[in-house]
């Protein structure tokens, strides 16, 4: 009697963000994370199990000095070494621009799938929408879906568009399944980069006839105890970075094209789980050694370590960056995207390399004049609970600002600038990074036209990074506390 089932091991990562190097676990001396240990674990599983699949659900790039210095080229070279079977785009794959993304895609020795990024004028997809993997006489269909935030990244490129709503994404998956899923497709996996809550909404909208079995996601950096099961679809995500990897061990039935047995775990990547891949360590060290020579110069020292543990809240590191940029901008209010700060702690000694890895996005700073009513509108928008779900755009503000939001009332309770309550018809200056101006309607709840209408708009710097670096060079032994700049009342 023929056995119509197969065992598969699916390993999945997301939001690796150039997390190349292992770290020492506090209090033990053991190494955790890093691509050499991750590669060691991949090698181990590939040797132990028969049918192993490794996938990445977006955001391979951005977040480390090695990545930003080489604009993702180093990351793709290292990913070629890890050899994922299929990858989907994350929003940060667009950070170096669309032409560079297409260059990186040509460099990759693995398929990169995305079904909902289009060249609008011609109605053609930018990337391959799906990939069918043949393994152990079974066929597995992978479909890629990206977050609506790609629209933010591409807002200045009018040729490119995407279906941005969850409903449209569901329809796009249905289109691929209807066109390409047949009796030979044994398993269907959606690789998404839309955030965990959006994955749940997406699963509810998928028709059972389309036969999607698993959603492997990213973007919200969600850590799970076990996958969610929605509409008979398994939904999983593997946190952020390389300190862990998701692992599905499943049994698939060829007759019913369905999963009949599964087990999932979030596997820690450390020196206990696997031996480091010495060849990859050596490969990465070639990049690291070049950068160490260039970026080891000390530019400042804080009086203590500053931290940025959560982007939704005021942080000491966010405070010092906002103060530095606000001082140079001569502005009443500055909004610095919390996601611009890519590390959880910095200092007390800060090298040029530390700063580059911490604040890799270089952007313009521009100052606008608005009234108090508009300022309240902006803070009501950015402080609302729905924006603090791991998928929203959150901000750090300068020391002159005190804003209080009531979660139970869902409203801004108070906002003051320089200890004076904001007055509706009074004029205030607000400084934004270029990215946040371009996407002001989505991220701030106010249009470009409204920001410009007040007059006196001015680009105060073409490089926020250069301003920050110079300010830090001339401000040693400083510190910041949590001051109540942004307060959420439960």
Which keywords apply here?
Purple Acid Phosphatase, chain A, domain 2; six-stranded mixed beta sheet; alpha/beta; 490 residues; 29% strand; 2 domains; 5'-nucleotidase,  domain 2
Strand percent estimate: 25-35%
- Secondary-structure arrangement, i.e. CATH architecture of the largest domain: 4-Layer Sandwich
Main sheet, how many strands, which sense, barrel? 6 strands, mixed
CATH 4th-level superfamily of the largest domain: Metallo-dependent phosphatases
Query: Roughly how much helix do the residues carry, as a percent range?
Result: 25-40%
CATH class of the largest domain: Alpha Beta
How does the helix and strand content classify structurally?
alpha/beta
Query: What's the tally of helices?
Result: 15
List the helices and strands and how they pair.
Blueprint: E1 5-13, E2 23-24, E3 31-32, H1 35-48, E4 52-57, H2 65-69, H3 73-82, E5 86-88, H4 98-107, E6 112-113, E7 117-119, E8 124-125, E9 130-135, E10 138-146, H5 149-153, E11 160-162, H6 166-180, E12 185-193, H7 196-205, E13 214-216, E14 228-230, E15 233-236, E16 244-253, E17 258-268, H8 278-295, E18 298-301, E19 306-307, H9 316-329, E20 333-337, E21 345-346, E22 349-351, H10 352-358, E23 365-371, H11 372-382, E24 395-397, E25 401-406, E26 411-417, E27 420-421, E28 427-433, H12 434-438, H13 440-444, H14 448-453, E29 458-461, H15 464-473, E30 486-489
Parallel strand pairs: 1-4, 4-5, 5-6, 10-12, 12-13, 13-15, 20-28, 25-30
Antiparallel strand pairs: 1-16, 2-3, 7-8, 7-11, 9-10, 14-15, 16-17, 18-22, 19-21, 20-24, 23-28, 23-29, 25-26, 26-27
């Amino acid at each position: 009697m023929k056995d119509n089932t197969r065992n598969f091991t699916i390993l999945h990562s997301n939001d690796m963000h150039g997390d190349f190097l292992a770290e020492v676990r506090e209090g033990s001396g053991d190494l955790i994370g890093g691509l050499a240990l991750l590669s060691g674990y991949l090698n181990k599983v590939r040797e132990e199990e028969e049918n192993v699949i490794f996938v990445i659900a977006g955001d391979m790039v951005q977040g480390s000095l090695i990545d930003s210095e080489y604009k993702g080229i180093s990351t793709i070279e290292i990913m070629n070494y890890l050899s994922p079977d299929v990858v989907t785009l994350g929003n940060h794959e667009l950070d170096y621009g669309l032409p560079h993304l297409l260059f990186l895609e040509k460099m990759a020795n693995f398929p990169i799938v995305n079904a909902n990024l289009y060249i609008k004028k011609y109605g053609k997809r930018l990337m391959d929408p799906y990939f069918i993997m043949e393994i152990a006489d079974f066929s597995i269909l992978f479909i890629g879906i990206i977050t609506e935030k790609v629209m933010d990244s591409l807002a200045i490129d009018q040729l490119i568009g995407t279906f941005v709503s969850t409903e449209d994404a569901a329809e796009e998956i249905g289109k691929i399944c209807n066109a390409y899923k047949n009796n030979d497709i044994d398993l269907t996996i959606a690789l998404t980069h839309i955030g965990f809550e959006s994955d749940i909404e997406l699963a509810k909208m998928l028709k059972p006839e389309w036969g999607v079995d698993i959603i492997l996601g990213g973007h919200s950096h969600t850590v799970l105890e076990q996958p969610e099961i929605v509409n008979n679809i398994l939904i999983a995500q593997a946190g952020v970075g390389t300190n862990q990897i998701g692992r599905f061990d499943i049994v698939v039935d060829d007759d019913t094209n369905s999963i009949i047995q599964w087990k999932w775990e979030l596997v820690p990547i450390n020196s206990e789980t696997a031996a480091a891949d010495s060849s990859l360590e050596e490969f990465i060290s070639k990049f690291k050694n070049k950068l160490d020579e260039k970026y080891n110069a000390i530019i400042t020292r804080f009086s203590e370590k500053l931290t940025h543990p959560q982007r939704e809240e005021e942080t000491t590191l966010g405070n010092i960056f906002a103060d530095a940029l606000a001082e140079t901008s001569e502005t009443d209010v500055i909004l610095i995207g919390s996601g611009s700060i890519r590390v959880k702690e910095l200092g007390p000694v800060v090298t040029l390399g530390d700063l580059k890895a911490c604040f890799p996005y270089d952007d313009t700073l521009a100052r606008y004049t608005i009234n108090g009513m508009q300022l309240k509108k902006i803070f009501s928008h950015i402080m609302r609970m729905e924006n603090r779900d791991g998928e929203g755009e959150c901000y750090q503000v300068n020391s002159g600002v005190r804003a209080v939001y009531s979660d139970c009332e869902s409203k801004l309770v108070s906002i003051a600038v320089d200890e004076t309550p904001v007055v509706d018809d009074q004029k205030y200056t607000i400084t934004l990074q270029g990215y946040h101006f371009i996407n002001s309607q989505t991220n701030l709840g106010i249009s470009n036209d409204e920001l410009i209408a007040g007059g006196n708009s001015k680009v105060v710097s073409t490089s926020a990074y250069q301003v920050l670096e110079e300010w830090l060079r001339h401000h040693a032994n400083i510190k910041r506390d949590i001051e109540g700049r942004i307060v959420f009342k439960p």
